[in-house]
Amino acid sequence: MISHDETAAAPNSPAGRVPPAFPSRRAGAPLLCLRPSLALQLLVAAALGVATAAVYTTLASWHGAWQALPITLAFLATGGLAAAAWRRKQPAFIEIGSDFFAAYSRDGACLVAGQIAGASQWGAWLLALVVEQGARRTTILIAADAVSPEIFRTLAVRARSAAGR
């Protein structure tokens, strides 16, 4: 069972010990647990609803209401599957240090590890952290409701300081 503590060591791990599922972890750096963001999930659901309505109204004006319905339902199902895949791909744990950032999935696989880039964006309720891994860049979205306010502020400060480099 995954703990929703702010400084969880890892899923099903004894207190403070790092399981072999996290082989790339740096010693002494905190591993923080991310909660699924209700705000991001509602935003994705609302966007899918608006897109589905747009598809239906466009197709219904061309082909009629009943002929547009199966295509619209197929669009909704495809969008729902894509949203579910996106949700599964979101990081469950993050690790922040003075010169690095890492994100891990629920099973301990490292999704991204590197430095926070200057292209990161921050706002009152959402951070878009751009992590550089050599020449490759990956964007990680972290909503304010996924972590504690202190951790969110820390990540926002790291993003701002990376923008000043």
Please describe what this structure looks like:
The protein is α+β, with helices and mostly antiparallel strands and 165 residues long. The protein folds into two domains: 38-88; 91-163. Helices cover 40% and strands 22% of the residues. The protein has three helices and seven strands; from the N terminus they run βααββββββα. It has helices at residues 38-63, 65-89, 149-163, and strands spanning 31-33, 93-96, 101-104, 110-116, 121-122, 126-133, 136-143. Strands 1, 2, 3, 4, 5, 6 and 7 form a seven-stranded antiparallel beta sheet that branches. It is elongated and about 60 Å long. The chain starts with 30 loop residues before the first strand and ends with a helix.
Number of domains: 2
List low-confidence stretches. Answer: 1-20
- In DSSP terms (H or I, runs of 4 or more residues), the helix count works out at 3
Which class best fits the helix and strand makeup? Answer: alpha+beta
Cα Rg: 19 Å
What is the averaged pLDDT score?
81
User: Largest sheet, described in full?
Assistant: 7 strands, antiparallel
Shape, per Cα inertia axes: elongated
Strand content: 15-25%
Helix and strand succession? Answer: EHHEEEEEEH
The percentage helix is 40-55%
How far apart, in Å, are the first and last alpha carbons? Answer: 40 Å
Number of strands: 7
